[in-house]
Amino acid sequence: MLGLRGDETPLQVLAAVARLRSGTGAARRPVRWRPVPDAAPPVLDLTVALVPPPDGDPDLTDALAGALARHGARVTGDAAQHPDLVIALPGAEPAVPPGVPLWVLTRDGSLPPVADHVVDLPPETDAVARARLCAVIGQGYSAARIRPEGVFVAEYGDEVFVADYEDEAVPGPAPRVEPPARSTGSAPAGGLRAALAELPRDRWDAEVLTGVRGLAAAVLGHDSGAGIDPADDFFDLGLSSVTALELRDHLGTLTGLEWPADVLYECPTPQALADLVVTRMSEGE
């Protein structure tokens, strides 16, 4: 009845039970979208097949792969090898093995009836949105919307409906709570400017350098930034093009400033990056 082969993981069995309970994938219209508090993404001890659309979306693919890997997932591009779940990027139509949960990502508010889970992404899928996606996957919501204001999950009624429905108003905004992160130094995430405002100007350089080293440690998987020398090259330490974007996004969260995609190539050491941050923060005084 569940269509199982016998070698499924617990996650796959739960997904099959959910499909049976929901009427084998029949699409239902949400009665409303309920805001849920932000939560720290769990460790995703899963093999995840990430499938891009036919015309490709390398920036989104790399960013999501980096976020999933940072939260413990083993990311592959092959959906045929019976992963724990398949994530289809907007526009992708993957062939999914029987019993493997399909997560479909959209950007138009649609709820494809063939999907086990649907997540509607915001236009700008920044570091916060990617962390929220990992948290949504960990929670196993059947349908969710990620917005700048927070995460909204579907509450269903009994009405059957077509997938492409007219977008409904989202309640909110929900109180925004940033996902907890590993320590990046003495300045709290998103609060570097406030932290610097409490310090004399001659201590800014050391404070910013501590924050930059802490961010690099978090992205690289180190316990702290103490072992990262200010003159170390980020890419010699193991940073890749994907994790460079992750570090850039976290730097934006920490400073409240926009940074170009190539900032880590222009400033390839913690000291050079910290010097640039101090310069820009000084300009904003």
Characterise this structure.
The structure is a single chain. With 285 residues, this protein is an alpha/beta fold. It folds into two domains: 10-160, 3-Layer(aba) Sandwich (Rossmann fold); 192-283, ACP-like (Non-ribosomal Peptide Synthetase Peptidyl Carrier Protein, Chain A, Orthogonal Bundle), CATH 1.10.1200.10. It has eight helices and eight strands. Strands 1-8-7-6-5-4-2-3 form an eight-stranded mixed beta sheet, covered by helices on one side. The longest helix has 17 residues, at 204-220. It is elongated, with a radius of gyration of 21 Å. The model is unreliable at 10-27 and 158-190 (pLDDT under 50).
Secondary-structure map with pairings?
Blueprint: H1 10-21, E1 28-36, E2 47-51, H2 58-70, E3 74-76, E4 85-88, E5 102-106, E6 117-120, H3 127-139, E7 143-147, E8 150-160, H4 192-197, H5 204-220, H6 241-255, H7 263-266, H8 270-283
Parallel strand pairs: 2-3, 2-4, 4-5, 5-6, 6-7
Antiparallel strand pairs: 1-8, 7-8
Helix pairs in contact: 2-3, 2-6, 5-6, 5-8
